[in-house]
Amino acid sequence: MGHCAACHGPKGEGARGPVLARAKLPRAPDDETLFKLVRDGIPGSEMPAAWVMISREIWQVVAYLRTLGKAGRENLPGDPARGETLYTKSHCAQCHTISGKGGSVGPELTEIGGRRSGAYLRAALVDPAAAVPEGFLQVEAVTGDGRRLSGIRLNEDTYTIQIRDTSERPHSFFKSELQDLRKLRGKSLMPGYRGAFSERELDDLVAYLASLRGGL
Amino acid sequence: MKRALLALLIGIPVAAQAPYERILKADTEPGNWLTYSGNYSAHRFSRLNEIHPGNVGRLKPAWVYQIRARDKFETTPLVVDGIMYLSEPPSDVTAIDTRTGRRLWSYRRTMPKGVRGCCGQVNRGVAVLDDLVFVGTYDARLVALDARSGVVRWEMEVADRNLGHSITVAPLAVKDKIVVGIAGGEYGVRGFVDAYEAKTGKRAWRFWTIPGPGEPGNDTWAGDSWKRGAAATWVTGAFDPESNLVFWGTGNPGPDWNGEVRKGDNLYSNCLLALDADSGKLKWYFQFTPHDVHDWDSTEVPVLAEGVVRGEKRKVVLFANRNAFYYVLDRQTGRYLAGRPFAKQTWAKGLDDNGRPIRLPSTSPTLQGTLVYPSVPGATNWFSPSYSPKANLFYVAARDEGGIYYMGEAEYKPGSQYNAGGFRSAPGEEPSGAIRALDPFSGEQKWEYRLHTPPWAGVLSTAGGLLFGGTNEGDFFALDAASGKPLWRFQTGGQIISNPMSYLSGGKQHVAIAAGSGIFTFALEE
Predict the structure, then answer these.
(1) Which of B422, B474, B489 sits opposite A50 (nearest CB)?
(2) Neighbouring residues of A110: CB distance < 8 A, sequence distance ≥ 6
(3) Distance separating alpha carbons of residues B119 and B125, to the nearest angstrom
(4) With contacts defined as CB-CB under 8 Å, which chain B residues touch A158?
(5) Confidence band of A42 (pLDDT split at 50, 70, 90)
(6) Closest residue by Cα to residue B32 from B53, B10, B11, B17
């Protein structure tokens, strides 16, 4: 279990990887599919193939995952309704989208409650730079004519980089055209809300986010 | 080319006529690409020089051929007299007119149930000999096709597909035989190199890469672990007509990451073998990574060259190994002459006088995981290096990446994966890669060209003074072969997991590469 827990949490409560403690796993409706998913991973995602396990062990993992589904949802102390109000009042939607509404500088949150645990969400609010989600590396570029640009890296290869700036406009540059290019690892465009929100407000906001499960 | 063009014009079916003598002298007809690595010495060097640093900026696509499959497209095409022969995943073969880019015929093979392999239903290319085209199939057969039509002339079972055998390697036509290797190193197979009579398909010889009881080397395996010891042979080797030796690399011992169940050096895993081309008898071997526990197959391409090493002019084999070391070996004896790392590695203090690695402690896989450089895919892999006699440089696509290695339980079940462990990327690391130019006879680095991510594409050098390579992000690029300076690139739109090659069509030099699901060919703009 040491391998799965690193991303999905020790009890499948979710962390970097989706929540597994749920009645239905959207990608694995039956045990056979779940076995194959664990064995082969999900190509194009961070979910690796489980080469480390022999078949018997994979079946044991499948059985364990199914018990997690019976545990029910996480019990969180906050009030989702108050959290929603806080979300709106704090202009979170400037950067995040929920059900088609909002910005795209930060990750979409429509299904975030099905993908991340309460503890993870709380940590992300307090210290967003500690675990910047995949695909949200912050970069700063200086163009050939001296313009400064800050945003999220959308794509990159040896010769080019694609950036979405803080006003959500996409840019694409040949690296040779740039005066400077910096990758700000360990930094996030999102401010940390430690101190900005009370403990109760944080609980409320986490409870609201955890309630966002979309189709999951 | 004239012969092919004439034949097309008057409507006669065009066909490969590639007798052994032509392949032997492949360097004298650089307009064709007659064998996987371009010549028997596996130089992947084109003697064409129409495209050079001064005009490569005018290189434009000539045509693109799209395949049907979605699996990784790893082929190196062959070109014989104006016709390109390439393999498509899983084990199809297509002949294309190089002038128009249009298909002449395809051989389609439906994979039966029960085929299995570690890493995708891939194929790296075909061999041609006389009027036949040879393909090894994912269901572990060798098939001979009529070069005129693609019709099957014979088909032989090489090994039992139900036990995890498959064939992904491009066969090598040597004299009147077709040499082929096997994949299945993650399934506990017993590896071998085979040769088949090209005309009939009858097996001429088999060399087991793991010695049986009573044979020298069998005692390098604890108990009966040799039976499941792998040492697969899934990358095309080289041939030296003078010594009549076939050189072929062998893969990891099985199970991959738990060496406890197979104590010993595990011969002939992770070796370069020198086999007599007529009998398959072992002349010598050199083991790069004795008792490997990191899955560092030595299934890279051995390159034959001649140069001054340790003060003497010698015939040598050059080998950039997945374990991050570069080796120069004596071609006649296999004796180690020189070596050094060509990429980041943290597992060995160096090589001793015999080329044996001096291992560092605490680098084996554990239950908790051990961080080691290079990662499981290695500092390089099956994709080809290139040797330019003109630039006197050896080029390798190198991967700078660490990995966390886990040891697991070893349980063998016929036909199932037998890895006993696993791996994952080092957290928080953004791995990268480089094209590195080395002094062929010492391994000293002369220049490098950095790549955004660790590559899965090989390289081609040319007499025009260029080096071609590809990236994971789809860039096909040309560098100055002498300095590494970037000169040209083209974004193909698909990951490049293959090797470039070059040929003449319509009297013009072309360069070709498989990228994404297409073969892209390029020539200078008129």
Answers:
(1) B422
(2) A97, A98, A99, A100, A212, A214
(3) 16
(4) 450-452, 471, 473, 475, 477
(5) confident
(6) B17
> With the CA atoms of B36, B39, B41 and B42 taken in that order, what torsion angle do they form, in degrees rounded to the nearest 10?
-30
Closest CA to A96 of A190, A171, A186, A164: A190
> Which is nearest to B301 in space by CA: B282, B277, B322?
B322
**Pairwise CB contact (< 8 Å): A48 & B419:** no
**Mean pLDDT for all residues in chain B:** 95
Burial grade of A43 (CB within 10 A; 0-12, 13-18, 19 or more):
exposed
Sign of CA dihedral A17, A20, A25, A30: positive
Q: Decide if A2 and B368 are in contact by the 8 Å CB cutoff.
A: yes
**Residue of chain B nearest A57, judged by CA positions:** B409
Instruction: Name the amino acid, one letter, at B252.
Output: N
pLDDT band at A135 (very low <50, low <70, confident <90, very high): confident
Q: What is the mean pLDDT of residues B359-372?
A: 95
Count Cβ atoms below 10 Å from residue A160 Cβ, excluding itself. 17
Q: Which of B408, B411, B473 sits opposite A52 (nearest CB)?
A: B408
- Asked if B471 lies within 8 A of A158 by C-beta distance, the reply is yes
In residues, how long is chain A?
A: 216
pTM equals: 0.90
Chain A residues touching chain B at CB-CB below 8 Å:
2-3, 48, 50-57, 156-159
> Does the pLDDT at position B42 exceed 90?
yes
CB nearest to B489's CB, from A51, A156, A159: A159
Q: How many angstroms separate the Cα of A60 from the Cα of each of A14, A55, B415, B502?
A: 19, 9, 21, 52
Contact residues, chain A, for B450 at CB < 8 Å: 158
Q: Which residue of A has its CA nearest to B419?
A: A51
- Longest Cα–Cα distance in chain A: 61
Ranges A56-60, A98-102, B113-117, B206-210, most confident: B206-210
Half-sphere exposure of B248 (CA within 13 A, CB side): 37
Give B474's contacts (C-beta < 8 A, 6+ positions apart): A157, B491, B492, B493, B494, B495, B496, B515, B516
Cβ–Cβ gap A3/B450 under 8 Å: no
Q: ipTM, 2 decimals?
A: 0.78
Angle B420-B422-B344 from CA coordinates, rounded to 5°: 125
CB contact under 8 A, A3 and B406: yes
Contact present, A48 and A39 (Cβ < 8 Å) = no
Catalytic residue list of B = 295
> CB–CB of B384/B347 below 8 Å?
no
β-bridge partners, B127: B134
